[in-house]
Recover the amino acids of this structure.
């Protein structure tokens, strides 16, 4: 079957605009559960906050396959409310400190309201030329309040979360702009994978879902892996593109297909898994590209769990991630979705054993 593109774009908009900083993923979790429900037999949950829908095989003693996204996006947490109504904050996840001045961010209040504001910056008129890039702890969010009392009257307190205030926008035929494509991409592809496979009988029990707190050190992945105990795992995550001046070694190029991540700071792809993915991609004419990253994904924790879990990352790249905006290419998403679904359809006991022990 095929999924209508308009339906996919509606899901992209909904997912990327949700508020989900690390440790504050409940809105994303609720959406994922709602979207997965028609296609799964049950849900399983870990105590960190991860959620997985299970599509069971009719085959007895089926192997388990895990498809893991992460729900969280980089964001901030309020650390101080000043007397004149400004909000100081600390980062949740890895962010550069020099890109946030004058950006629109939004706070989620204790009663669930999202309140927008602007990050403070010194106007050119008052600069001396010696300021340098500010540290995160020197920035403040201005939500238009005049006092700490006014802030608290809006049900905002220390410890509340902040994320970018960025609408999902189509830029051209194939390219889109949003916040949080890292990693609502993975949440989206998991939902649509199960929709694509809803009438397909698999040889495996398929666990599809998302972990919490990836952006602050891959914290939710191990709990999920130890809960599910998969025989094989696929991580679906978005990676930074560095192609603004053209191709730059193996750092991802928009529009050139899904990423086959052969090495990063947390995991090396097993050659047998690499060759399996390449065969599926070649056989099905799926655009793909090699990728190397100094960073990591939840695969870094999953592949070490239990007795060891063969793990591959099927990704897409986007420009400017871990900021208020990212730009990505719809064709890369289509390629990733095709590679993931075809790979799972081609898994059987023999193939899984080869991935485990060869």
């Amino acid at each position: 079957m095929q999924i209508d593109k308009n339906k996919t774009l509606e899901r992209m908009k909904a997912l990327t605009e949700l508020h989900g900083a690390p440790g504050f993923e409940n809105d994303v979790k609720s959406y994922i559960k709602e979207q997965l429900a028609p296609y799964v037999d049950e849900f399983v949950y870990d105590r960190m906050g991860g959620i997985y829908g299970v599509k069971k095989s009719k085959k007895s003693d089926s192997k388990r396959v895990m498809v893991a996204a992460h729900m969280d996006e980089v964001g901030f947490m309020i650390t101080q409310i000043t007397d004149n109504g400004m909000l100081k904050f600390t980062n949740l996840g890895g962010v550069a400190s020099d890109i946030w001045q004058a950006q629109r961010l939004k706070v989620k209040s204790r009663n669930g309201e999202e309140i927008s504001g602007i990050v403070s910056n010194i106007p050119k008129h008052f600069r001396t030329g010696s300021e340098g890039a500010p540290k995160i702890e020197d920035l403040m969010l201005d939500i238009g309040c005049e006092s700490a009392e006014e802030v608290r009257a809006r049900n905002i307190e220390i410890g509340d979360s902040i994320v970018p205030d960025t609408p999902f926008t189509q830029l051209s035929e194939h390219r889109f702009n949003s916040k949080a494509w890292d990693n609502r991409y993975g949440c989206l592809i998991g939902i649509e994978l199960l929709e694509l496979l809803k009438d397909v009988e698999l040889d495996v029990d398929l666990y599809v879902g998302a972990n919490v707190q990836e952006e602050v050190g891959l914290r939710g992945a191990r709990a999920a892996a130890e809960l599910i105990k998969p025989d094989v795992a696929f991580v679906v995550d978005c990676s930074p593109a560095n192609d603004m001046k053209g191709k730059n070694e193996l750092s991802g190029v928009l529009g050139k297909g899904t990423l086959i991540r052969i090495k990063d700071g947390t995991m090396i792809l097993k050659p047998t898994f690499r060759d399996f993915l390449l065969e599926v991609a070649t056989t099905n004419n799926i655009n793909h590209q090699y990728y190397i990253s100094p960073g990591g994904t939840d695969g870094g924790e999953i592949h070490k769990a239990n007795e060891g879990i063969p793990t591959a990352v099927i990704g897409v790249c986007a420009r400017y991630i871990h900021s208020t905006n990212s730009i990505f290419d719809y064709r890369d998403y289509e390629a990733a979705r095709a590679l993931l679904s075809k790979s799972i359809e081609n898994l059987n006991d023999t193939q899984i054993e080869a991935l485990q022990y060869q």
Notes: Residues 5-73+179-357 form a domain with the Aminopeptidase fold (CATH 3.40.630.10). The mean pLDDT is 96. The radius of gyration is 21 Å.
